[in-house]
Prior knowledge:
The chain has one domain (2-70). It contains three helices and no strands. It has helices at 2-18, 20-40, 59-70. The longest helix is centred in the middle third of the chain and has 21 residues, at 20-40. The relative contact order is 0.06.
Amino acid sequence: MPWHILAIALKELLALLRDPRSRIVLIGPPIAQLLVFGYAATFDLNHVPVAIFNEDGGGAGRELIARIAGS
């Protein structure tokens, strides 16, 4: 049974690749996504605003705030 499904999938893939419009539809969007998301996804995290509400008021809370402020 799986061989029949693979044969049908291969037949459909070859039919899609024969048509120039289908090739564009298959290949175009992934390339566009690579370009758009490649430039949009930056992991440069500088100057990120952070709010801290210290309910503890003890030394551990102050130390944690100091470590976050220093990073």
